[in-house]
Hints:
By secondary structure, this protein is mostly helical.
Amino acid sequence: MIPAxxxxxxxxxxxxxxxxxxxxxxxxxxxxxxxxxxxxxxxALRSEMNAIPELNAYFQIEIIEAxxxxxxxxxxxxxFSAPEFLSAIAAAVNGDxxxxxxxxxxxxxRIHAVHRSDTVLDLHFTNLATAQTFAMRDDALVLxxxxxxxxxxxxxxxxxxxxxxxxxxxxxxxxxxxxxxxxRRIEQANRWRRESxxxxxxxxxxxxxxxxxxxxxxxxxxxxxGLLRHFYLAPRLSEPISFGERLETTAVSMLAVNDLETCLExxxxxxxxxxxxxxxxxxxxxxxxxxxxLERLVVKLTSPICQLHLLELAVSCPxxxxxxxxxxxxxxxxxxxxxxxxxxxxxxxxxEEFSYWLEVRQWSPLIRLAITWAHTSQLYNLLYAPDVDVExxxxxxxxxxxxxxxxxxxxxxNIKLWNDILSPRRLNRVRLIMGGMESIFQxxxxxxxxxxxxxxxxNLAVRTLGDQRFxxxxxxxxxxxxxxxxxxxxxxxxxxRNLALVLGEDLAQQGTPDSLKATVERAIExxxxxxxxxNQWNLLACILGDLPIYADLVERLSYLAKxxxxxxxxxxxxxxxxxxxxVACDHTASTANEELRAKLEAELIAIARVIEIQExxxxxxxxxxxLLECALKVAVRANDPRGTSIFLNRLLEQIATAWYQFxxxxxxxxxxxxxxxxxxxxxxxxxxxxxxxxxxxY
Length: 698
């Protein structure tokens, strides 16, 4: 994509450079304007364009490869020609002394190598004018050695550069060792090092230690390929196997080249059950070693996902009940609640950053979900410390997140991502903990559950109103039935079967899929004759959310939405009307019912006219937000960002015309959104932007 765009831009620039109608002054002005345009391009595009000689000649650009060693010698800030520098390094690495002159001064430096071991050496640079010496170490430069054995030893000593499965690792080493040109060898090794996710995490950790601050860009690795290699995954899974089966195979490969602790650490980042192969290897350890390993992992793996995995390991070992109690208490505590909020904030930030990364958008939905969660969990473990002010940290992350005004996928609805139980936007603490605990405790003996204090889950899952007890409202959301579960989430599936152990039969029954479906069916039936019944609309919104309704109830909900007069409902009670509209609009997006879509579009515009007439000034901000939300929901066409954008912009134009104050509220915000969205989501966006700006008051 980048090379193709770079070529198109270059062709346009070169065409303008040859424009015959320009006089000398116009040609100069054109070149100056194009130079500024070129300088404003993203670095990746400029780098690609630098390889085109005609463009460099037009801009009078001279490409010079240089090595800047100012960090080692800040007093003289020496800069060397890259070819001369590498040749001198090669001579030093192979036992000779070499001299090199800085290109930005007349200073001459003598270079010699001081070997620390067969594969580790320091390069000493002596300023011949001042006799001052500074040392630098970069293992990649040792690849200038003429000895293939030394080159291989260096590469094997720096396995973090490769961070991949054993076969890929061996092939990469063989290729680099066999390369005859030493410059090419160094370039190959540095490319692997730049792409290595392990090197990225180590570098990020070092930055946190030294600088105590970071930006959103620091949270995202430089290479999506390196991130996939880190977790032993491919961009797409072609074999007809589940992710759980793939993770079992991955665990075997990992364990072949890593110790058990490293393997458990890495797979614990995934929001799925631990591979059986690793659990068996853990249980085969002597009791003392198991306990020591668990204690080390508890210190390192602090994310809620990792804690659930460690809890699973702890309850499987009779001698680790105290560790299980510690983990259980941490997850349910007030501090655990804050830590969950921190995790959710990082997850949302990572997901939004990934949405703008072209390479990530080319992954399969399954891989995208797996890496988003795993990368978030690993970042959390690096970022969180017991002494951190979590609330302040969350606020800082939210501030950083403002760099992105909106996800790049807001109008590009990939159903396999959107409707998955692991969609980051579905993350809920109560559902995660209750579902995760159900999965972990399902085979535990009652004595183990009692020792851990599992009855405390009641405080998390149950609410009391008067003398009646109900499941927490989040457990009424039937994502276990209605959402997809492509990875096999640790808290996915029908985990409610064992809730009775903790909550009792009556409460457990409230959250079963059969009970929730029956509640939806009754709600639709009641609303057909009593459309103003707020409780029933709220039940539908709570249980269904924005997920597709049960297959055999699709037509009944469609009929209800078609026969409900939402304008009259709004005039009677705006709050009920917008709950009902959200249910109807989500249903329309799920079913792609164009007849229903047209009806809802007309009613949203009619409601905008009613608001204009009523002039509910004190409620305008809230009303406009709800109207915009419903417009977005009804506009969505799955996997069709162009169609969604065109429909949404047409609808917003009509709403803005019907209700003038809508323009005052959203003109600037929507303008910012259009600056951030990818081009395939901006069809028609300029018309609504212009209309909002024209209609707003000053």
